[in-house]
Request: fold
Amino acid sequence: MTDAVQTHSSSAQFTPRIFSGIQPSGNLHLGNYLGALKRFVDAQGQGMETLYCMVDLHAITVWQDPAALRHQTRELAAGFIAAGLDPAQSMLFNQSQVPEHAQLAWIFNCVARMGWMNRMTQWKDKAGKNAEKSSLGLFAYPSLMAADILIYHATHVPVGEDQKQHVELTRDIAAKFNHDYGVEFFPLPEPVIEGAATRVMSLRDGTKKMSKSDPSDASRINLTDDADAIAKKIRKAKTDPEPLPSEAKGLDERPDARNLVNIYAALAGQSVDEVLRDVGGRAFSEFKPMLADLAVDKLSPISTKMSELMAAPEEIDAILAQGAARAREIAAPILERTYDIVGFVRG
Reply:
């Protein structure tokens, strides 16, 4: 946690609401599906409002080809919908269509402290030794991320472990704003991290996260892969010579085996222990075909639906515009009240 002044404000007094966003960076893969899209779909109809956003403003913190950005934003939206997200139940939109995100981010730029930003792990990782050449947007984007969440008074934020620090910063910014202005206006949102496959690893190296930037396409299952490609990649996935254990602790020193079991568990909607009760003692020559069949059954309909959606980009654009209009119905009053609290004069 940062060293912000803490207040007694909590999310208890606020309408339960889930917000999460994904950068439209292209090449959606199994890790994106299990770590985010599937969870978003599962959260529908659970008694909370759900808002899911393609964070295209975050994407341009590094230079983007405009045509590629448009394509990737639509592809990400297609991935959401193909995975089962219902735009009638959840608000699905791209960030740049809701200007309140950027407007609140400026106020938060004036609340957050430089020291907080300097300590952000992702800033250090992305800027590296070329920090002086990085954009101001890349440095300040955690403030925009806080605005993404708080412009909806979101109370719960599904994130991976690598994003938990950003939710902690969001809580600090909310707490400092509330303290500075003597209000309890912004909630302190809770990160939601759960499940067997929150962190999906490379099929070629179980110690590394599955990534679109890995030079080996065999390291990941893309959501655009057809059934044959999915099955082939699983058959060739790295394993070890030992049979599968009968309980989870037997995977502790076996990262490649643990990764495949985690993937199976997440796709099947089972716990790791439940999977191992069924497959413990089996060789990978038996388990891999089981995993391949399951992955094809779950994922090939998604790739087919994505192709259909991408053939009609105007329909995707209409869905995003409708989602943005609904999102603004929530965001605009919250920004107006924020302006009042800060002391801005408006006609």
In short: Residues 1-9 have pLDDT under 50 and may be disordered.
